[in-house]
Amino acid sequence: MSQSLSESLKSLASPIINQIYNDDFIQSMLDGSTPKGSIEHYLRADHQYLNEFAKIYALLVPKAHTNEEMNFLLSQIDFVINGEVDAHYFLSEYVGKSYEDIIKGHHHWYPSADHYVKHMYYQVNMREDIAYTVAAMCPCPYVYQQLALKMKEHHSLESNHPMLKWIDFYVEGMDELLEYLFNWIDQSAEMMSQDEVEDVKMNFLQSCEHERKFFNMSYQQEDWMWNNDEQ
Ligand SMILES: Cc1ncc(CN)c(N)n1
């Protein structure tokens, strides 16, 4: 029996996730050496990213076919805005500043975050079928869940490890969400041509690479050359 599209996506994403795991951001989280400035950069970018992610979920509501799909989207808007902020509070504890102080006054999207967000907005605005956007959004929970599982699997983290609460947040809370998203992709793929399926794959894999760029952007505190007014 041939592999489902979602199974194919997961195996294609695996080498990218391994690269992210071995990059500086995750490796420094594990050894507790992440520069506080890199975490602050991440939090400023991610606060905006999650707000845009919620707005893109909202733009999917008119494309939903059932009340059940609409309720899923509403629940995810609530989670992204009001639930995932807990993961940010765990990281602001590491920095030693209040989350509100870290993110206040920050308005522009850093370059790699800009590219990632616009990749998702392009799908929701230019593609009729919801699957193209869902495929571009799915790596957001999927990559983090896989990274967190690898971090726990390969390291016996002390109970006072500074990143343990952040890691556990993504180990525990993603299964039901991911099952829904991947089923949505598989169901849509049944009515697609091979070319359309290839486009769905590209959207998913590009977002996996955008995840890698987002972490590297944070570690290197990447910004635009024109912006020189931020701490
Ligand atoms: C950029 C990004 N990607 C994924 C996640 C995890 N939902 C996040 N908070 N930020």
Automatic annotation (TrEMBL):
Q: Where is the Thiaminase-2/PQQC domain?
A: 14-220
Question: What pathway does the UniProt record associate with this protein?
Answer: Cofactor biosynthesis; thiamine diphosphate biosynthesis
Subunit field text:
Homotetramer.
The answer to whether the entry has keyword Hydrolase is: yes
Q: State the family named in the UniProt similarity comment for this chain.
A: Belongs to the TenA family.
Query: What is the uppermost EC class here?
Result: hydrolase
**Molecular function via GO:** thiaminase activity
Organism, by scientific name, is: Abyssicoccus albus
Where does this protein have coiled-coil stretches? Answer: none
Listed Pfam families: TENA_THI-4
Write down the NCBIfam families for this protein, in alphabetical order: salvage_TenA
Protein keywords: Hydrolase, Thiamine biosynthesis
What this chain does, per the entry, is described as: Catalyzes an amino-pyrimidine hydrolysis reaction at the C5' of the pyrimidine moiety of thiamine compounds, a reaction that is part of a thiamine salvage pathway.
Enumerate the catalysed reactions.
thiamine + H2O = 5-(2-hydroxyethyl)-4-methylthiazole + 4-amino-5-hydroxymethyl-2-methylpyrimidine + H(+); 4-amino-5-aminomethyl-2-methylpyrimidine + H2O = 4-amino-5-hydroxymethyl-2-methylpyrimidine + NH4(+)
Q: What is its EC number?
A: 3.5.99.2
Q: Please cite one Gene Ontology biological process associated with this protein.
A: thiamine biosynthetic process
CDD domains, per database record = TenA_C_SaTenA-like
Record-given protein name = Aminopyrimidine aminohydrolase
Q: Which InterPro entries match?
A: Haem_Oase-like_multi-hlx, Thiaminase-2/PQQC, Thiaminase_II, Thiamine_Salvage_TenA
GO CC, any one term: cytosol
